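Our working data are protein records whose layout never changes between entries. The record below serves as our worked example for the rest of this section:
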Amino acid sequence: MDLNVKNLGRLAVGTAIKTVAKAASKLPRLDREYHIEERFSGPWPSDGPYLWLHGASLGECRMLLGLAYALQEDLPNCPKILITSQKVEVVAFLKDSCAGAVEVAIAPADVPSTLHLFASAVQPLGLILAENELWPGYLSTMSKLSTRRNIALVSGRYRKSFPFINFSGMGYACMQTAADLGRFTYASKGFVPCTMGGDWKLLNWARDGGLVCVPEKPTVDVVFLSFHQEEAEALVSMAKDSVDRGDAVVLMPRKLSELNLFRRLLKESELPVVDYPSVEKGSVSLVTRFGLSREILLKSRSAVVGGSFDRRLGIHDFWEPLRMGVSTCVGPYAKGHDDVVAKLVNAHVVAQILTPADFLRRRHPSPDAVRTFLMAERMKVLNSYKLLLNFIKGIL
């Protein structure tokens, strides 16, 4: 190891983190919930080499799973693929969803000794990072494994990164917006080949032809997608307005651990509650497990996107209802996607309400306006995906 000041600093911090984490892992309840020991010691797949894909959120990792399937179809002699995430519930969802088509594991802690163990086991050929997962140790470790640039960032969102981050191993980056592209180019000093590639949550839809079909005979009038407990007050207010109007309402909490809280608050507001798949006019149907958004959106007339009614939260995936032809509404905040949401609102593709009191007066965007906007996004995504394919071919 080149023991310069930065590396010494990372080593010292990593050692301290590992010491604290090891102590925490001795507490059975904490280790069961957070898989602390697994983050530092594995096990990770040891029958490499693998192409390593890493994301954090459920939305990012669903995008990466779609990317994995696309690479397996489009990349001759595609290597085995490993997807990692820091989130235990996301890892569980991916394992249930991928049916063994790819390997899935908890992400390694960004600590030098842990990353050495991980790289020795997995033998990563390259690393594809989702959105803004620019972990310094991941980049440093990968850059030492090859003389070729073997790291890519896809569907990139960029505000800022650690000041000591090393971009030298990055060979490709496609960013969601022009603003992201400008900020990343400045931070990386123009060293990384970049393009504007849109949001890759649209990748599978784009590869499948990019159709936007309005659901026929929807049985759900409004679905509240991925709401957090911090948005409970706004949610109850809007749900009450819908129920009073006789609508069939569906609520998908962001975290299943918050399900009982929402159930209690809805009942305290004297709103009828049933469990999905039951859907009834004048009632709120609660979704009690992950992975049902597509099924529900296929029969929904409109959607309200969570994470947008509290400034501290990150907005949920608004592309999913849009590409499925569902009239889509967001709240006053769009943390992490401010530029894109502003563009969608200004183009009358997404409706935005500033308070829950505006809910029943929300605008319903024209399906034709949505189709026109999404066709332009589709071309950006497909063109940037072709560039990624060429990048991967160059490192294999």
